[in-house]
Amino acid sequence: MWNNWKRKIQGLAGLIAAVLLLSGCGGAELENKTFPLAVVIAQQKGQHTICYLAQQLSEVANERADGGNMTAADASGSTYYETHKTFEKNNRCQLDLTHTKAVIFQKGFLESSAFPQFLDTVRSENTFARNTLVYLSDSKMDELAELNSELEVPLGSYLEQMTENEQEMKEQAFVTLGALLNEQANASRTLLIPVLEVQRGLPVITSYEALQGFEAKGRVGLAQAQIYFLLAGQLKQMDVYLDEREQVRLSRLKCRRKFFLKDGKVTQQLILTADAERVTGGAGQARIEGALKNRIDEACRLEMDEKGVDLTDSSRYLALYAPQVYRVYGRRGQEYRNHLACEGMVQIRVL
């Protein structure tokens, strides 16, 4: 894993050096640039604090380098843009964020006015790539900086590899800056942003933050998040533990939706189909279907009752699949959710 990552960085460093030489600049100018692979952003008492977790690419390009060479430096300012420029001035360098793998917001950032301002700056300055991964974290900034220096690869690369090695979820399940920019413009979806914690020296996803209508709605547990990804068609497979002795693996997962409108009330029927392979035990079709239906119904009801979160992300489907409902509620997302009920139907083929 480390060798593959190092080869990528060496190639990147070589490309940058070649561009500098072709433009008439000396190769030494690479040392005047900082390439953060992860950026941690917080806002407290009206002040931004940003920590740039980087690695010196000029040293990685040197085959005699001993690896690592992690750096962590922070800056503060009244806005994201000011903080960015303050960092460059204080460190006498130019920030290059085009290769940043992950942006990590700290607790409370989504609820602050700094969040939309940050996205406005990203959109206007075009600083980050749109496929940059997005996370939240309750861990302190210095904890993440320490983690960046202790991992075999930089934190940003580690998080990227987590997504690449994910066997259950599809690529579109991961929230990116591009998805946040789209949601800021449309405010029509329910997104789940992964929350990181440092456990035993590793970054671990422990829950998800629900962003609905571009508003932070609170934390969603891992079991409820799995149902969200299932209904969104973002799972390649799903392990279902019926009890200590019975486990099945679902594949070929598909979810269809039907909407019914009566007296202003909307019923969404979720029709899930899948193939099931027994891993342990001998669970029958009816038992698997009943268990999964109960989990879908319970998860959707729980999140709607406690947080007003539509775990089915159904409003995005109305214009195309339920024009009669869309004509009534249009873009009045919260009013629509207040009149929404969900009903799961599960059809399993046991292999």
Describe this structure as you would to a colleague.
Helix 4 (114-125) packs across helix 7 (177-186). The longest helix is centred in the last third of the chain and has 23 residues, at 285-307. The protein starts with a helix and ends with a strand. It contains twelve helices and 14 strands. With 351 residues, the chain is of the alpha/beta class. Helices cover 37% and strands 33% of the residues. Strands 4-3-2-6-7-8-9-10 form an eight-stranded mixed beta sheet. A four-stranded mixed beta sheet has the order 11-12-13-14.
Query: Low-confidence segments, ≥5 residues, pLDDT <50?
Result: 9-28, 59-68
Q: What characterizes the major β-sheet?
A: 8 strands, mixed
Q: So what's the overall shape?
A: globular
Radius of gyration: 23 Å
Q: Secondary-structure element order, as H and E? A: HEEEHEHEEHEHHHEEEHEEEHHHHE
What is the residue-averaged pLDDT? 85
- What structural category arises from helix and sheet content? alpha/beta
The share of residues in extended strands comes to 25-35%
Strand order of the largest sheet: 4-3-2-6-7-8-9-10
* Count of distinct strands: 14
What share of the residues lie within helices? 25-40%
Query: What is the number of helical segments per DSSP (H or I, 4+ residues)?
Result: 12
N-to-C span: 35 Å
Task: Briefly characterize the structure.
It is built from twelve helices and 14 strands. By secondary structure, it is α/β, with parallel strands linked by helices.
